[in-house]
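Hi V.,

You were right to ask for the full record rather than a summary. Here it is.
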Amino acid sequence: MDTSTELILIRITGLDRPGLTASMTEILSQYDVTILDIGQADIHSTLSLGILFKSPKKDSGNIMKELLFKASDLGINIRFYPITVEEYEDWVSRQGKDRYILTLLGRKLSAKQISAVTHILAEQGLNIDAIKRLTGRQPLDEEKSNVRACIEFSVRGTPRDREEMQKGLMQLSSELGMDFSFQRDNMYRRMRRLICFDMDSTLIQTECIDELAERAGVGEQVRAITESAMRGEIDFQESFAQRVALLKGLDESVMKEIAETLPITEGVERLMFVLKRYGYKIAILSGGFTYFGEYLQKKFGIDYVYANELEIIDGKLTGRYLGDVVDGKRKAELLRLIAQVEKVDIAQTIAVGDGANDLPMLSLAGLGIAFHAKPKVVANAKQSINTIGLDGVLYFLGFKDSYLEERGKL
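Predicted structure:
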């Protein structure tokens, strides 16, 4: 660097107000100053502003004097730090390091939770570059409904042991009652385009086959088979055939009654509204039944539905199904197929589900999220949501409440 120039970092703190940044940069604009870096944050109307600049040595004294006088007039604090060429070059060299986004999510976030997570980041040699809150301002009344808290950390570096870090975060998630997502910060994360959902116990808070079984008087038998299949204890196709056979003779009208009273999962309406508004393609890939998937498709404007077709003759279920079973393997195949049709890179896809038969598509998708899932699924998923509703997916995609509220009643 030219010896006639020098590098100076200024840090400004104080009560934020309109025009403050403009006042400080106006002084710099009167000299031959190059801005090398600038960052600003506002917490509860308290400003923290940093500016790193290069200026001719002959002007540095006047610049600092004028900035100091202006800071006094504005009632803010300002500090000056000379930066060496070596320090600056070291800072520049770090920009090639990997970047990740760690998202923490819960009904509320405590100092204990944040401390535990940031300790894991430190142990892995990761540096936190920025922290921002994605959820709205927290009410003091914690009993209010639908309260949630989400913080996003932008971190830099390469984890010393990615698998060990994942295990540590998963353990904290279970012990401290929070959810997390750890994603590489690349263009694919910022350009997700296709999202595929399981239906039963994900978009809706029930298993449709269990509802049908109750009406057929075989609820207990079917539930036992369902739970065993979702835990991965028996083959899904085998369990599916066993359960469908037990529905033989049930009247077709029962399906309409169940569809009209499906318990929609918390956050689904908000999630679907946002996804459609921002151009996402949405699919249901379900081991359940087409009838109920198509009902949700009409309700929420879903683009694709792939599920299982029950055979009906003379208005009665025959105990058989038509076509191939949509099992875990088929879900992954469909995810890949839809991505190809929509000309979407697989890294731009998202999959959300709760059961063992969802694991193949969760593993294949660019972002796989276990939602209120069975223990085996949570243990094998890289991201999970257990503390809030399905709209928690939006925070893993980087959406911010304030941004959404500016564009609709969300």
